[in-house]
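hiii so um. not sure if this is the right channel but i have a protein structure encoded as tokens and i wanna go backwards to a sequence. like what aa goes where. can anyone help
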């Protein structure tokens, strides 16, 4: 399992830890954040005394690590929070952070007991009966009894809240970082940008900059790998091709292009098919998919962003169209390209 995103680069760890501490206090759950490898990127927020002692024990801590690993994998597999019992029957939650189908990391929360004791939850790791473990548990019985107790409904609500909140914050941070990277690349490419202030952008200007620079960078990337102007054998069609290549975000219609060339739609369609070897309704989406492939190869834009920039109705339709022409999804195409680049 790999990820092109790194939580250390995406978020301010100090600020994130303060947020994590606050969430821990509000939810009464211990919380820690791990990267996609399962390695902690924060300290534990309000780790319960019982769990802290168990995790410090050389014989018992490996069971805790197995619970974390298996819980995280199950959360990734289902793409939603996974609630389970640890080897001591304590309730924990693995909350995946997934952006653009990329698993970035997880929030591990819990160290609580359920008020609804009859609620079935999987005990993800079990231990064989052991007299020494029983002795250690007896010594920590008071700490175990002091674990917070929540209802199943409270646990479910908290899990969903953490899932949506943390994914939203990380996604916004990625967009901000992407925009700043685009800003730097735009200046490096010496693209005319009279309206762009070369000073470092403030956060409140990020959204406006993102819209402006996204369009500029997309045109630049496509121009670099594909001639911007299609030279038509039949000069009658040239105005249509010029328009199509200049307005990559638009869903151009055959009727409009025929009007631009001052011919009837039926005549335009016949001449266009003779010129390109394809119907207009096939040529346009195929061309957009070629542009999409170039953006997948040369930018860090998400699938959703590329879908928007190339004028698709929604990401689902973009993915369906991409798969129709390439026999795989945009995410898989990017993964294969990156592995062989």
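sure thing!! here u go:
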């Amino acid at each position: 399992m790999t990820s092109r995103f790194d939580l250390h680069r995406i978020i301010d760890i100090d600020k994130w830890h303060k947020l994590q501490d606050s969430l821990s206090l509000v939810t009464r759950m211990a919380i820690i954040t791990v990267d996609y490898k399962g390695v902690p990127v924060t300290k534990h927020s309000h780790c319960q005394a019982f769990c802290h002692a168990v995790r410090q024990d050389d014989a018992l801590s490996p069971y805790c690590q197995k619970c974390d690993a298996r819980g995280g994998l199950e959360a990734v597999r289902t793409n939603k929070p996974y609630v389970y019992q640890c080897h001591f029957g304590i309730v924990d939650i693995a909350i995946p952070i997934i952006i653009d189908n990329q698993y970035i990391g997880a929030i591990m929360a819990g160290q609580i007991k359920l008020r609804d004791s009859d609620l079935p939850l999987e005990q993800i790791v079990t231990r064989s009966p052991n007299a020494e473990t029983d002795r250690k548990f007896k010594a920590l019985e008071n700490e175990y009894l002091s674990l917070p107790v929540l209802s199943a409904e409270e646990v479910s609500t908290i899990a969903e809240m953490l899932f949506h909140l943390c994914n939203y914050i990380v996604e916004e941070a990625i967009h901000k970082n992407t925009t700043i990277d685009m800003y730097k690349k735009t200046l490096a490419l010496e693209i005319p940008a009279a309206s762009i202030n070369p000073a470092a952008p403030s956060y409140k200007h990020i959204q406006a900059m993102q819209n402006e620079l996204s369009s500029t960078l997309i045109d630049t990337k496509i121009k670099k790998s594909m001639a911007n102007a299609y030279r038509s054998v039949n000069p009658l069609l040239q105005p249509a091709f010029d328009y199509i290549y200049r307005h990559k975000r638009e869903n151009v219609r055959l009727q409009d292009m025929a009007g631009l060339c001052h011919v009837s739609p039926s005549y335009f369609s016949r001449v266009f098919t003779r010129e390109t070897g394809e119907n207009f309704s096939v040529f346009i989406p195929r061309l957009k998919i070629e542009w999409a492939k170039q953006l997948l190869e040369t930018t860090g834009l998400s699938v959703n962003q590329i879908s928007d920039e190339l004028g698709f109705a929604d990401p689902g339709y973009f993915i369906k169209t991409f798969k129709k022409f390439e026999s795989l999804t945009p995410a898989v195409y990017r993964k294969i390209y990156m592995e062989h680049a």
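oh and Residues 190-207 have pLDDT under 50 and may be disordered.
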